[in-house]
Design a protein that fits this description.
Helix content is 54%, strand content 13%. By secondary structure, it is an alpha/beta fold. Strands 2-1-3-4-5 form a 5-stranded mixed beta sheet, with helices on both faces. Helix 6 crosses helix 7. Bound molecules: zinc ion. The site of zinc ion has 7 residues, from helix 6.
């Protein structure tokens, strides 16, 4: 009899433990599904990451912690920001913003120029991954912008890139200051502006403030990110 009561108690305790484990698992799953990061928090996170990068105090996981992160993300992703940046090897967004696997959805082209495929890629992140922030990142001494400014004669498909940058070059002609730097900034601003009116996924969300698009400038000299107004 005593034995049977003991068994019942053990079973009840086992059920309680299993129930609480399941509930906490369910709660964390729900938080993961609905816990997308708002645009304001996403931007703060990126800018804080850049501050750590500038100071040489990057914190993102390495070694075993990175392997663990990889396992966590194997079946799902929930990036908190889209970064559209130049392909330049000196501007890797994950390093610059001190973020890790699964944090940012990155699209890169020379001069961060946009075509339908780029827009579609960004739309995918907004529509299916629940991302609320898009950062268009230009950078100091951008080779693509420099070539567009100097009117370089290129072959292959490179002229298509320069053509996409030309409006920013025209817009900044005659301005005081560095011609390339002015065009880099105008190019990032123009692209951010253009993304605001790119159709059924991005435009309504920008209008309802659900999605924010910002243009930014990266300094090769300092590692600093500057938001462009
Ligand atoms: Zn560049």
């Amino acid at each position: 009899m005593l034995h049977s009561n003991k068994m019942k108690t053990l079973k009840r305790n086992a059920v309680r433990i299993l129930t609480s484990v399941w509930l906490s698992f369910a709660a964390s799953s729900i938080a993961g599904e609905s816990g997308s990061v708002g645009a304001h928090d996403a931007l703060s996170r990126l800018l804080n990451g850049d501050k750590r990068f500038v100071a040489g105090k990057s914190e993102e996981p390495q070694g075993a912690a990175l392997i663990e992160r990889r396992h966590e993300l194997a079946k799902d992703q929930k990036p908190f920001a889209v970064i559209l940046s130049c392909s330049d090897s000196r501007v890797p967004p994950e390093l610059v913003f001190d973020v890790t696997l699964g944090d940012i959805f990155v699209v890169r082209t020379a001069g961060e120029v946009v075509d339908e495929i780029v827009v579609g890629s960004i739309e995918y992140a907004i529509e299916h991954l629940g991302t609320h922030l898009i950062v268009v990142l230009g950078h100091q001494r951008c080779g693509a912008v420099s070539a567009a400014v100097s009117g370089a004669k290129e072959t292959g498909d490179i002229p298509d890139i320069l053509k996409a940058i030309l409006p920013a070059v025209e817009e900044t002609k005659g301005q005081s200051g560095d011609r390339i730097d002015n065009a880099v900034r105008a190019n990032a601003r123009d692209i951010a502006k253009r993304l605001q009116s790119t159709g059924p996924i991005i435009t309504p969300r920008v209008q309802s403030c659900e999605v924010k698009i910002v243009a930014a400038y990266y300094s090769l000299d300092t590692g600093q990110i500057e938001l462009l107004k």
